[in-house]
Specification:
single chain; 512 residues; two-stranded parallel sheet; 20 helices; globular
Length: 512
């Protein structure tokens, strides 16, 4: 939706945000950037952007670089002041005590904030429990303390994940009791200096959750729940967030996390075998659906503060399967190619882990050794085997979510969607029933190529030519390999005293 669409049309959700001051965490992240773009279009008075100094670069410089670099800030090139006049950087760190915000900035936040959007999180599945708790749990609790001192606050929105409760096969739109007391865990981490011993126990502490991310997000939800009687709150739980569907541009993403990594890995010939149940529901969701649903849910929660405002933002009302996703992705292999590819796309799946592990030897390990040998002969650094170690760690992390069937209740989210005004459905499209999956997957493949591999469409024809040459080489190599296996099988049969096919052919001729 364009800026003109918002300026020319008045809508209930747009009016809720217009002229408001929004405190946004995670503004430099994937969802955070999309929030900034949408809030600017809504005509907010100010975005208080919580950012930390990173690699010696100040928060102010970081946001300037971000606005110039990212194509989703679609009006920045022609109207930079549209963004710069609305963004006020607040230096802070969600993982530090008290968020590391100065007293002057805190006072400004207290006196001006109307809406808090908390989308910051440590999303690494393999992060230590210590760091994950400090960012995802304690950071959320400290932000809630800030919210208590904001007299103008209309709503506090916590962006969680649908897999915060992944220990259940069916997840309702409600708060769940935590497995441990989040406040006791925070105190234990803050007081215990023996972090190495603590991390040894971490796996036992988080069971049965598969990783520290999902576990700490479940604890963060409980922290939010404990503030429910003090603040107007909302929790939005998206499933696996992937690239945009249409808003503000098609197929945009900025990271290799989750499903994006699978798409890029398969498209570049790196990921060639994956353990997955093809018939299971693919719990992926376009990022712009999540952004719009969050903003719509925020307005609803502000108007209904006494309800249990937990919203599952998932695909249950209109889903596709992992098998259908694979077919849609592979339909593009003769139409879209990338120069930054290891080999041709040959993405295979199996529901059996032993089969996946066995085939990985031939699809991943042996080709990696061959590629590294070629690199060494050229005097270059061997790096393909190291790449595959990362691929296998990535696959191990995702396996929990690709071989289990999850369902999510979406009744409350559906209530919100059904109550939306017609103009809001245009300006804030977030109904999953409108998504055409084949169109989305095709655009995601092209988006990953453009925005992650940084290859403009003009390079596609050259990449396709390279891909066609590799396809010929690939088929020739397979022919040689299969002939070799065939001859080896005949020799083994002969060595075992078993007649080979020529014997049976001769018998056939004789009988004829």
């Amino acid at each position: 939706m364009s800026l003109q669409d918002f300026q020319n049309n008045s809508s209930p959700v747009g009016e809720f945000f217009a002229g408001q001051t929004v405190l946004l965490t995670g503004g430099s992240g994937f969802l955070g950037k999309l929030f900034i773009e949408k809030l600017v279009k809504c005509g907010v008075r100010e975005i208080l952007l919580l950012l930390r100094t990173k690699k010696g670069v100040s928060p102010e410089e970081r946001i300037k670089v971000l606005l110039k670099k990212e194509v989703i800030f679609v009006n920045y090139a022609t109207q930079p002041e549209l963004y710069l006049s609305r963004i006020k950087v607040i230096e802070g760190d969600i993982s530090k005590p008290g968020l590391a915000i100065s007293n002057d900035d805190l006072e400004y936040i207290y006196s001006h904030t109307n809406i808090i959007l908390h989308s910051a999180a440590d999303v690494r599945f393999d992060e230590s429990l210590h760091e994950s708790v400090l960012t995802n749990v304690r950071g959320t609790e400290h932000l809630l303390r800030v919210a208590l001192k904001c007299p103008l606050l209309k709503v506090f929105v916590h962006v969680s994940t649908a897999f915060s409760q992944c220990v259940y096969e069916h997840v309702e739109e409600r708060f769940y009791p935590p497995s441990v007391d989040p406040f006791e865990l925070i105190r234990a981490i803050e007081q215990d200096t023996r972090m190495e011993e603590f991390e040894v126990m971490a796996k036992k502490i988080i069971e049965p959750w598969p990783n520290t991310y999902a576990f700490t997000k479940s604890l963060a939800e409980d922290v939010v729940h404990q503030y429910k009687d003090k603040l107007p709150i909302a929790v939005v739980r998206p499933s696996i967030v992937t690239s945009t569907y249409k808003d503000p541009i098609t197929g945009w993403t900025d990271n290799f996390y989750g499903f994006n990594g699978v798409v890029v890995g398969a498209g570049t010939g790196v990921l060639r075998i994956f353990h997955i149940y093809d018939e299971y529901k693919a719990n992926i969701i376009p990022a712009d659906i999540v952004i719009n649903a969050t903003l719509v849910a925020a307005r609803y929660a502000a108007d209904h503060p006494l309800e249990e405002n937990v919203f599952n933002c998932t695909t249950d009302e209109n889903y596709t399967t992992w098998g259908a996703v694979r077919a849609d992705c592979m339909s593009q292999k003769s139409l879209v190619a990338a120069k930054k590819s290891l080999w041709i796309p040959t993405y295979n799946t199996t529901r059996y882990q032993l089969v996946a592990d066995f085939l990985a030897i031939f699809y991943h390990l042996l080709p990696a050794l061959l590629f590294d040998l070629v690199l060494r002969l050229r005097g270059q650094k061997a790096q393909v085997l190291r790449l595959y170690r990362k691929v296998h760690r990535f696959s191990d992390v995702l396996r929990f979510f690709t071989i289990k069937q999850f369902t999510f209740g979406t009744e409350r989210m559906r209530t919100v969607l059904d109550q939306m005004a017609i103009i809001d459905r245009h300006l804030f499209p977030c109904d999953m029933r409108s998504v055409v999956w084949s169109e989305f997957i095709i655009n995601q493949v092209r988006g990953c190529r453009e925005y992650l591999l940084h290859e403009p469409w003009e390079m596609n024809e050259e990449a396709l030519r390279i891909n066609r040459r590799r396809t010929v080489i690939h088929r020739c190599m397979l022919t040689v390999i299969y002939l070799g296996f065939g001859m080896l099988a005949l020799r083994l049969l002969a060595a075992a005293g078993i007649p080979d096919l020529r014997f049976y052919l001769g018998c056939t001729e004789f009988a004829t």
